[in-house]
Specification:
Blueprint (H helix, E strand, L loop, with lengths): L5 H35 L3 H24 L5 H4 L2 H21 L3 H24 L7 H28 L13 H7 L8
Helix pairs in contact: 1-2, 1-4, 2-4, 2-6, 4-5, 4-6, 5-6
């Protein structure tokens, strides 16, 4: 017995999209976790980096549940991209805090750039609300809410959970530190 038709194709497409979303998010999170564990030489620090993003995604989904009756799976598939965008806020805070243990200076120097960066990114995603595609509208709402909430969550959560070592090593211990410490300002064109 065989069957065919558009309902069968639609179900197969939905299953493929779901599998692709899961695979993409798992692969991106695994690569990021390995890279972050290598850089920070700690197992729990990468978890602190992902915590604001996870918190923001859950709050965004909760907000969307009350705003819209349904949300497109395609808009949720941008999760892998959002992970890369939103963990940057926590990484900025972590690296700044790692090299300067003063929490007051951390907030003075990093709060405004993080809020402005997240606001501009959120507004960019929010522009998708004006297109005719319902999936892209969902994507714009979901991404903008997630990006903006992630910056606030990173500012609140990361300094509470991450405590850099008091005896900072000034030596470059890995290739990421060596790339970051290169004097790029001395390059003349």
């Amino acid at each position: 017995m065989s069957y065919f038709g558009s309902p069968v194709i639609a179900v197969a497409n939905a299953q493929q999209i779901k599998k692709d979303i899961q695979n993409t998010v798992i692969i991106s999170m695994t690569v990021l976790l390995i890279l972050l564990m290598y850089y920070f030489r700690n197992f729990f620090t990468p978890l602190i980096v992902f915590l604001p993003t996870v918190f923001a995604v859950f709050i965004s989904l909760m907000i969307l549940y009350f705003i819209k009756d349904k949300i497109s799976a395609i808009s949720l598939s941008v999760g892998a991209i959002l992970i890369g965008i939103t963990i940057d806020y926590a990484l900025h805070i972590l690296t700044h805090y790692k090299h300067n243990n003063n929490i007051e200076e951390l907030y003075k120097e990093i709060t405004q750039p993080i809020i402005l960066s997240s606001a501009t990114t959120a507004v960019s995603f929010l522009c998708l609300v004006f297109v005719r595609s319902e999936a892209l509208k969902d994507l714009g709402l979901f991404a903008s809410i997630t990006v903006f909430l992630s910056s606030f969550a990173a500012l609140i959560i990361v300094p509470q959970l991450y405590h850099p070592k008091a005896d900072k090593e000034k030596t470059n211990t890995n290739f990421i530190d060596k790339i970051g410490s290169y004097p790029y300002e001395k390059i003349s064109l």
